[in-house]
C-alpha cells in the first residue's frame, strides 16, 4: 500500500511536467499579452514593461524560468493585482471552497437519497416524477436559473440578499458573521445543487438498479434478512463502488470555483478572478491556477484508487 | 403428513412480448427427510417453482395464480411477507447454481455466514462468528478461522459452494432447496459436493428439493423424481422405478440421451426438435411435436397427470393406453 502511494506520487512528476508544458505553451503562444492589451501605453513604456516582466525573452527561456520558479513553490506574480499568485489564490480560493464544499455535501446527499429511493420503485409514479424534475432542473441554463432565483427570492420577495458574501459595509463578527455569510450562500448553493444533482441522481439510480439485480442480493433475501438489511448492507455497498471514481473527480471541482454562478451572485471566489484574469490576460494567474487544478485532479484520482482499495476487497494496490 | 406440498401451482410472467406461462398446474410433495429431484431442460420451470416457494419471484412481473404451496401445513402464498421472511434461511434454505456470484464480493465469508444466525437464532455477533467457523469446518474446509476472514474472490468455486451449503444449513432447516448445486463446478468437485449433501441430509434429517438437469445427480441423491417439461410435470415417481421403467416418452428420451461410460456410440442419442416457445404453448401436449409415440389427438388434447401404480404418475395418452 505504502509502496503503491509512493510510486503513484513519483509518477506524478512526469505527468505534471507534461501538464506544465501544455499549460505554459497554450498561454504563451496565444497572441497578445498583458502589455499589448493596454492601448494607453506609449511604445517606449510598453517595451520597458515587457523587459520588466520578461515578456521579450524567447518562449523556451520563459518556460524554463517559470519551471524554475515552480520548483521553489513560486507560482509567479500577478500582473493585474500586483501581488504573488499564491497570495491572490489564497485570498479567493477559500471562498470558493466554502461554497463548493457545501454544494458537494448537499448534492451528493440529495442524489444518493433520491437515486436510491427511485431505484427501489423503478418506473413507479415517484420514479417518473423524480426523473422529470431532475431533467428539468439540469436543463436550465445556469445564468437563467441564477437570475430567476435572484428575481424571485431577492428582488420580489426580498427574503435573501442579491449577492456578495456579506452585506455591504457589514462589520459583523463571530456568530453574526457566520449567519450573514450563510444567508448569502443560500441562493448560489440552491442554484448549483439544482444544476449538479441531476446527472448524479441518474447515475446512482442506474448503479443501484444494477446492484439490486445481483445474485448476492437474491441470496441475502433467501437468507431471510430484513429488506432494510438487504438493501443497505448488500445492494447499496455494491452500488456505491463505481461512484467512488466520481467522488475522486470532485476534488479539483472543490477549488475551481463556479465561474458563472460566482459572477452572477458576485461571490468573491476564485471563479470570479479566473474570468477577470482572462480578460486582462494575466497569464501568471491563469497558468498557476490551471496547474494547481491539474495537481488536484491527479491527487483526486489517487485518492479514489486508495478509497477503492479500502472498500472493495477485490482491489489490490500493487 | 407432507412437509411440502405444491398444489396446482401456476406462475406467469407478463413481458412486453406477451405472457410467459413458466409454470402450469404443478403439483408435487416432499415428505420430511425425503429428497425430491426435479429434472428438466433449462426454462422448463424448475427454478421458478423454487423461487415461488421462497417468495423470491419478482413482483409484480410474476403472477402466481389459483394455487397453493403448503409448508408444514401453512400456506406460504398467503403468509405475510414478514412471516415468510422468518421462514427463509431458517426453516427453508436455498443454495444456488453460481456460488461465485451468489456470495457478496464485499463482505467476508464469516460476515455472510453470521447473518442468518444473528437474524434467526438471535446469536450475539461473537457467538455467531464462532458458529460460522464451526460451520465452515463442518462442510469440510480446512483452516476455518482463516477462511472466515477471507473474501469470496479468494476461494475456489468448490469452496464457495461449500460455504453456500454451510450458510444454508446454519439454522438447521427442515427443507433445503438446491438449485443446480453442482452445475457450475468441475466433475471431481461435483462428486464431493454431492457426497457432502448426502452426508448432511442423513445427519440432519433434512428434506431436499433438488433441482437439476443432470440425471446423474438425481440418481446419486434423490428418493423420488418429478420430470418437468415446458412448465408442467410430465412424470413423477420413485427414482428406481422411474429409471427402470420410464413411461413418458420425454423421460425415455432424457434417459436415452445420457452418455453411458464404456458404451461408445457414433453419436449420442438426442431428442429431436426444440422446446416449444413459452410465449405460445400448443393447446395439446407440449411434447407432441417431438414425440416418437405421438397419436392423432395429442396435439389437440392435453393428457392429465394420472396415477399408473402406487406412486408413479405420468401425463401421456400413450403410456395410459399401455397400462389400460
What does this structure look like?
The complex is a heterodimer of chains A (318) and B (324). Chain A has 318 residues and is mainly α. Chain A has one domain: Orthogonal Bundle (MetI-like fold), CATH 1.10.3720. Chain A has 13 helices and no strands. Chain A has helices spanning 2-28, 43-53, 59-71, 85-120, 125-139, 142-156, 174-212, 215-222, 227-240, 243-256, 259-264, 270-280, 283-311. In chain A, helix 8 runs antiparallel to helix 9 (227-240). The N and C termini of chain A lie close together (7 Å). The model of chain A has no long low-confidence stretch (mean pLDDT 87). Chain B has 324 residues and is of the alpha/beta class. Chain B is globular, with a radius of gyration of 21 Å. The two termini of chain B are 31 Å apart. The interface between A and B is medium-sized, with 23 and 28 residues.
Shape of chain B: globular
How far is the first residue's CA from the last residue's CA of chain B? 31 Å
* CATH level 1 class label of chain A: Mainly Alpha
Gross morphology of chain A: globular
Helices and strands of chain B, in order, run as: EEEHEEEHEHHHHHEHEHEEHHEEH
User: What fraction of residues of chain B sit in β-strands?
Assistant: 15-25%
Oligomerization: heterodimer
**Low-confidence stretches of chain A at least 5 residues in length (pLDDT < 50)?**
none
Question: Describe the biggest sheet of chain B?
Answer: 8 strands, mixed
Give the helix level of chain A as a range of percent. Answer: over 70%
Amino acid at each position: 500500500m505504502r509502496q503503491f502511494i509512493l510510486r503513484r506520487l513519483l509518477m506524478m512528476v512526469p505527468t505534471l511536467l507534461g501538464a506544465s508544458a501544455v499549460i505554459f505553451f497554450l498561454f504563451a503562444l496565444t497572441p497578445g499579452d498583458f502589455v499589448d492589451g493596454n492601448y494607453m501605453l506609449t511604445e517606449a513604456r510598453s517595451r520597458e514593461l515587457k523587459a520588466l516582466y520578461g515578456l521579450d525573452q524567447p518562449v523556451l527561456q520563459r518556460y524554463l524560468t517559470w519551471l524554475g520558479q515552480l520548483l521553489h513553490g513560486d507560482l509567479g506574480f500577478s500582473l493585474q493585482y500586483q501581488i504573488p499568485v499564491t497570495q491572490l489564490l489564497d485570498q479567493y480560493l477559500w471562498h470558493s471552497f466554502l461554497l463548493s464544499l457545501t454544494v458537494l455535501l448537499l448534492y451528493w446527499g440529495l442524489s444518493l437519497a433520491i437515486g436510491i429511493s427511485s431505484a427501489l420503485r423503478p418506473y413507479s409514479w415517484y420514479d417518473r416524477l423524480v426523473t422529470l424534475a431532475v431533467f428539468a432542473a439540469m436543463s436550465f441554463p445556469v445564468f437563467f436559473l441564477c437570475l430567476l432565483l435572484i428575481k424571485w427570492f431577492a428582488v420580489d420577495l426580498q427574503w435573501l440578499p442579491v449577492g456578495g458574501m456579506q452585506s455591504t459595509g457589514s462589520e459583523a463578527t463571530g456568530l453574526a458573521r457566520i449567519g450573514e455569510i450563510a444567508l448569502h450562500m443560500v441562493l448560489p448553493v440552491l442554484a448549483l445543487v439544482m444544476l449538479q444533482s441531476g446527472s448524479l441522481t441518474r447515475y446512482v439510480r442506474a448503479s443501484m438498479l444494477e446492484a439490486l439485480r445481483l445474485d448476492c442480493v437474491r441470496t441475502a433475501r433467501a437468507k431471510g434478512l430484513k429488506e432494510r438489511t438487504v438493501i443497505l448492507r448488500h445492494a447499496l455497498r455494491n452500488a456505491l463502488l463505481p461512484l467512488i471514481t466520481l467522488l475522486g473527480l470532485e476534488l479539483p471541482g472543490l477549488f475551481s470555483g463556479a465561474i458563472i454562478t460566482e459572477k452572477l451572485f458576485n461571490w468573491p471566489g476564485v471563479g470570479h478572478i479566473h474570468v477577470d484574469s482572462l480578460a486582462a490576460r494575466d497569464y501568471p494567474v491563469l497558468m498557476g491556477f490551471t496547474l494547481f487544478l491539474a495537481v488536484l485532479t491527479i491527487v483526486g484520482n489517487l485518492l479514489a484508487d486508495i478509497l477503492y482499495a479500502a472498500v472493495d476487497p477485490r482491489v489490490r494496490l500493487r | 403428513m407432507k412437509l411440502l406440498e405444491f398444489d396446482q401451482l401456476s406462475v406467469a410472467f407478463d413481458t412486453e412480448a406477451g405472457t410467459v406461462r413458466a409454470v402450469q398446474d404443478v403439483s408435487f410433495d416432499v415428505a420430511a427427510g425425503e429428497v425430491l429431484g426435479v429434472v428438466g431442460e433449462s426454462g422448463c420451470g424448475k427454478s421458478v417453482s423454487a423461487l415461488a416457494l421462497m417468495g423470491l419471484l419478482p413482483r409484480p412481473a410474476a403472477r402466481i395464480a389459483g394455487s397453493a404451496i403448503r409448508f408444514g401445513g401453512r400456506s406460504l402464498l398467503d403468509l405475510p411477507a414478514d412471516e415468510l421472511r422468518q421462514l427463509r434461511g431458517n426453516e427453508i434454505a436455498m443454495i444456488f447454481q453460481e456460488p461465485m456470484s451468489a456470495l457478496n464480493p464485499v463482505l467476508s465469508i464469516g460476515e455472510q455466514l453470521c447473518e442468518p444466525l444473528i437474524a434467526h437464532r438471535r446469536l450475539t455477533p461473537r457467538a455467531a462468528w464462532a458458529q460460522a467457523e464451526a460451520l465452515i469446518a463442518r462442510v469440510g474446509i480446512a483452516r476455518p478461522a482463516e477462511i472466515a476472514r477471507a473474501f469470496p474472490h479468494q476461494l475456489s468455486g468448490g469452496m464457495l459452494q461449500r460455504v453456500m451449503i454451510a450458510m444454508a444449513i446454519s439454522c438447521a432447516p427442515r427443507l433445503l432447496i438446491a438449485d443446480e448445486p453442482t452445475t457450475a463446478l468441475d466433475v471431481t468437485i461435483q462428486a464431493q459436493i454431492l457426497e457432502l449433501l448426502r452426508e448432511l441430509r442423513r445427519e440432519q434429517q433434512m428434506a431436499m428439493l433438488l433441482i437439476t438437469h443432470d440425471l446423474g445427480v438425481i440418481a446419486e441423491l434423490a428418493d423420488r423424481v418429478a420430470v418437468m417439461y415446458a412448465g408442467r410435470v410430465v412424470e413423477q415417481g420413485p427414482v428406481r422405478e422411474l429409471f427402470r421403467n420410464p413411461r413418458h416418452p420425454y423421460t425415455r428420451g432424457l434417459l436415452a440421451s445420457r452418455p453411458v461410460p464404456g458404451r461408445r456410440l457414433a453419436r449420442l442419442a438426442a431428442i429431436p426438435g426444440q422446446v416449444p416457445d413459452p410465449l405460445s404453448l400448443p393447446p395439446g401436449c407440449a411434447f407432441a411435436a417431438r414425440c416418437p409415440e405421438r397419436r392423432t389427438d395429442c396435439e389437440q388434447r392435453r393428457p392429465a397427470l394420472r396415477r399408473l401404480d402406487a406412486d408413479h404418475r405420468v401425463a401421456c395418452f400413450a403410456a395410459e393406453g399401455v397400462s389400460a
